[in-house]
Fold chorismate mutase.
Amino acid sequence: MEKLNNSIDRSWIDKWNHPFIISGPCSAESEQQILETAKRLNSSYVQGFRAGIWKPRTKPNNFEGIGKKGLEWLHKVKKSTGLMVATEIANAEHVKLAISFGIDILWIGARSTASPFAIQEIADALEKENNKIILVKNPIHPDIELWIGALERLSGKGIRKLGVIHRGFYTYQNSRYRNQPNWNLVLNFRTLLPRIPILCDPSHICGKTEGILDIAKKAYHFQYEGLMIESHCDPDQAWSDAQQQITPENLLKMLKTLTHLEKSDQKSQRSLDSFRILIDELDENIISLLAERMDISKKLGTLKKSSDISIFQPSRWKDIMKKSITFGKSLEISEKFLEEVFQLLHQESIKVQNQIR
């Protein structure tokens, strides 16, 4: 891992004296849409223009990207605006085509990062293209080893201009996010690989426009090097992920707000806010789990009612307390604290079941 960390070439991002911003639509839809969106972006704040050309979908028969002709449109953006252009690649053929059209930045999506076979194919195809900027999105599930393994495969082929994109992680819990940020995991990743530039993708974390600025602010507090935010000249008409794309003008407002924060924020305040962000995320997870627990209590109450079973089961309660305290002790949590917490949970569960009775 030390070898990987020391091999990173940060020149592509360190030359900027402000965060590296990539923006553009989720998908390339038409030449007009691509060019209009790009021209409305402010190049004083935005360095890279993005558009998905190939769109991997969970199920078939959905829009899966415009294909090769979209690369021609990106090439026109590069010539007419001077912006660097970026797109997602998922296999060797994508690599070949993207390079032939002069695409500057290639990113590897979350699904591909989760597949060592796919990563190796991409790495092999990039072996002689070691001047390209390659960004690797985190895998769908919170697996640091998969993420690092993808970087090691690319580095092993001589690719030095590497970076990662934090786009959040899938969760089975109820969440206000499309993908859970899991900030602490990314901070652990940075501890292991401190030289890897990290960009945040608030669009995919939120899954909707609401909250994008808040996530971007949090990424700033954690000193990320940049952002990837989806923008579209007419978001309501977007062919994919319309709910999470903003106009170039709204993007500019957000970036100006972040610039103001950068100038006014003190280091001590940033450190304090960073810990608060971690606590807030954990609190949200606790609340989501409590909601799931109460939902199961309701179902249990219905079952007990139909089967004429007593709501309070002393032996079951004793077993829960014993297991919970033993597990808590292994994590160095106070026995008294756990007893108080589980007493409250038990009382609320009984209350919920009694209401069903």
User: Anything to note?
Assistant: The chain has 15 helices and eight strands. The longest helix spans residues 267-307.
